[in-house]
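Before we proceed, please read the two lines closing this message. Report back on whether the structure tokens fit the sequence:
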Amino acid sequence: MLVTLVVPLPPGPVTWQVLTWSPAGYGPWSDPITFAIEIADPLATAPQLISPAGTLLSYSATYTWTPVSNAAYYRLAISMNGGPETYWWLSPASLGCVGATASCAVELTSLSNGSAAWRVQAWTVNGASDWSTPVTVSFTAFPPPSAPQVISPTGSATPSPTFTWNAPDNVVYYYVLVDDATGRRVDQWLTPREAGCRIGGATCTFTPAVVLEPGPAQWRVLAWNPTGYSPFSSTLAFTVSSGGAPLPNQVPGRVTPIGRADRCPERRRSRGGRNQRPLITLSG
């Protein structure tokens, strides 16, 4: 179906969705699609990139550039290893540079080994500036992480326990599995930042929004970076006590990194039998 809008759209990012309707009711919304109304603003100056550049001993980088007066948005473009660019539309408020009085900055994590070419464009209400001159940064290829060391719960635990483990080095994502007497209850990816353990040796903590059933339970965790998976940690068994807060049980959501990732990495193997990394892309 082709639909033409009679109202002109302003310059910048546009997101659109479609839903269906019949006398029986509404259907679900489609996935959103974003595109840009590409109009140049000859008075807008291009941002000047500050950092990063060269080689980083980390998978995380804070991208920083000079602010532009009257910018309503910035468009950050990153190409990994010569591939297609991925775009981020970012507001001055989210970058900490409202009023163009401070440098704009956003921290992102590379989910690929290799080099990233990045550039930035400022957008005003009238249109876009020229692109900045691209800068290339290389991310050091670290070995896969070692297995996390699980700490608790073990023994007896409440129906809503907090899971803790020691962080290995060079982790980009953790993958946590929890089973109770009814089966799999937690199947979730999370970042070191979400677990509060951004450096190796720190203690990670994670409290899923799930109330476990009384009885036997067990859990384990693995780590991942762009080079590969760690082994799973040892499996800790514990017993969920009865009682606790009268909260309804929730069906656990499966949260994956931006892009695509398999529900369980142990189910996705190459022909040689070794785990392959999740199909995920650079994310904030």
About this structure: The chain has two domains: 1-141, 149-267. Residues 1-141 form a domain with the Immunoglobulin-like fold (CATH 2.60.40.10). The chain has a mean pLDDT of 85. The first helix runs from residue 92 to 95.
